């Protein structure tokens, strides 16, 4: 029995070594498992963060973004927005005078500040509101849509107009382009009845290139409402807005191509109170004093000195009047 003892001890040592190796192997496998889990979980977290930070994640529920992408897909802003090229694009325009900034009689120039509105139908900007959370109106950049080339013929200078970079588009394709414009236009001014004169200046809107077969112009409101509308006129200066007349006409340059134009006649009247107090009353006083001077005795020296004083008053008054009266080469005011 004694010789068997060493073999039992060796078997005990081998079994303890195997248990130690198996425990070490289990610890290593657990460590690799934890490391692999961390790598997989971290990669999934990074992918999730990247997905949330990308554009589809931010705009996934944005209805306006989906609608804008739907309308801009394949849209050509350089082509007139009609499906049938024989169809004419009807542009409705409207004009409201906000202020009379300056009337230059010498250079025959009128400067006004107007609110200009135009609308037309774009057949390529149509959508179903039920597909986009009942959105029936959308604002879009003006540079991304087709805009008619309607200008004012009487333009002589570019005014300081604010830039409105957006237009409204309805689900039926109606495009609304509203903007304020500072208009500097040529106008024939007649100052014969100064300071009780009434001036009539025209603003002619027409397409610079397109004929009536491509672009036609109409009024957004009735001529009666346009004539008497003074709701936005805020100027309380020298000039008063009476009314705005409208006139539609078709003309041709070479009897081949016909163009449509809409002409607005802005009728303004000068407020004469300032000139009545500072110009008419002093002149009437001088004339009355001149007539009274004839009743003085001829043999008295006071009559001559009185007439000389009146002549001096006339000279000074003429210098003041020359700065007040409008200077023009067409005619002289009756006053």
Automatic annotation (TrEMBL):
**Keyword NADP recorded:** no
Location of the region described as Disordered in the Swiss-Prot/TrEMBL record: 1-24
* Transmembrane region(s): 273-296, 308-330
Query: Superkingdom of this entry's organism?
Result: Eukaryota
Q: Which reaction does it catalyse?
A: Ca(2+)(in) = Ca(2+)(out); Na(+)(in) = Na(+)(out); K(+)(in) = K(+)(out)
Task: State the membrane topology.
Answer: Multi-pass membrane protein
- Which ranges form a coiled coil? none
In its UniProt entry, what is this protein called? 5-hydroxytryptamine receptor 3A
- Give the source species: Characodon lateralis
This protein's encoding gene:
HTR3A
